[in-house]
């Protein structure tokens, strides 16, 4: 009786530990290719909803400017900036809505990997076009409100801030993550090498 009770408690402890370890490994299990592509597509849809709202409001504002009495007072240079801004806004709208059209045309064709890849590139292109549209819109408004070269300086400063927030910061964070992943991989490789080294094995045998 005294020997069976500790053995059963040991087995129960091992079963509990094994169950907990199984849950931990299941939580940390890598996602399958299908799960990964579905996750990426859901992320693109969320990003598209955010950017589409902004670009549609901005593009609608730009279209309404041409029908205001103030538009006739614009100089030739300002009219040129307006035309460029409208074209950039239309191109940004097309790029940011294109993933929906691509998904609708290729739905059921088992090409979700290609759809996600193309949608990601179109989103990046649309973000660049949207930033340029916002910069040109700001320049057009500031040239009408602020006299002199101060309008160009303000617009350039805002565009520099856009570049830092939208592109420089993500690139820096991505490089930091890649460097962290390389360091973790090197530490795991060093740990495995140390664990299976001949000296360690010889000491364990002795």
Taking the sheet with the most strands, its summary is: none
> What structural class do the secondary elements suggest?
mainly alpha
The CA-CA distance between the termini, in Å, is 36 Å
**Uncertain regions: pLDDT < 50 for 5+ in a row?**
1-7, 9-27
- Sheet-strand content, in percent, reads under 5%
Question: How much helical structure, as a percent, in the residues?
Answer: over 70%
Mean pLDDT: 79
Instruction: Tell me the total number of β-strands.
Output: 0
Count the DSSP helices. Answer: 6
Instruction: Report the order of strands and helices.
Output: HHHHHH
Instruction: Please tell me what the overall shape is.
Output: flat
As a whole number of angstroms, the C-alpha radius of gyration is: 29 Å
Oligomeric state of the chains in view = single chain
Please provide a written account of the structure:
The chain is flat. It is an all-alpha fold and 206 residues long. Helix 2 (33-65) runs antiparallel to helix 3. It has helices at residues 4-27, 33-65, 76-105, 112-145, 150-195, 198-205. It contains six helices and no strands. Residues 1-7 and 9-27 have low confidence and may be disordered. Helix content is 85%, strand content 0%.
């Amino acid at each position: 009786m005294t020997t069976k009770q500790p053995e059963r408690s040991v087995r129960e402890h091992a079963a509990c530990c094994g169950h907990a370890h199984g849950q931990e490994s299941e939580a940390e299990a890598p996602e399958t290719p299908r799960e990964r592509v579905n996750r990426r597509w859901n992320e693109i849809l969320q990003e598209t909803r955010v950017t589409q709202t902004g670009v549609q409001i901005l593009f609608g504002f730009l279209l309404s400017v041409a029908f205001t009495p103030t538009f006739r007072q614009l100089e030739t240079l300002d009219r040129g900036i307006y035309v460029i801004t409208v074209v950039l806004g239309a191109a940004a709208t097309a790029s940011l809505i294109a993933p929906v059209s691509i998904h609708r045309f290729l739905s059921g064709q088992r090409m979700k990997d290609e759809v996600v890849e193309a949608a990601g590139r179109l989103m990046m292109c649309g973000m660049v076009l949207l930033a340029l549209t916002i910069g040109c819109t700001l320049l057009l408004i500031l040239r009408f409100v602020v006299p002199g070269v101060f309008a160009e300086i303000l617009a350039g400063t805002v565009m520099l801030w856009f570049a830092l927030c939208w592109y420089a910061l993500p690139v820096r964070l991505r490089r930091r993550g890649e460097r962290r992943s390389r360091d973790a991989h090197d530490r795991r490789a060093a740990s495995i090498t140390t664990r299976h080294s001949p000296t360690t094995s010889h000491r364990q045998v002795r």
